[in-house]
Amino acid sequence: MKERINKEKPSLGRTIECIGMMHSALQSIYEREYPRDPLMFAIMAQGPVDQIRDLLDDIDWLMEDMIPRELRGQAAQLEESEEMEPVATKDAA
Description:
single chain, mainly alpha
């Protein structure tokens, strides 16, 4: 998670609304730039993509308070075990 300067938690509704606005901006850039110049699209899209990542991080931060304290350790262990499990591929079968 990113280091937070402002310790006040954002509103979930407002955060989701902002993700929608960034999605619309990204879609607009895609429609306008990608057909003409994919490299320019990649450069211009970086700002909205970074903002979406920050907003998703804010949602993770908000979710911390939604998990009861007693279950946080179990949730962290579950995440770690899921990250460590190998992913089966068609080639491995």
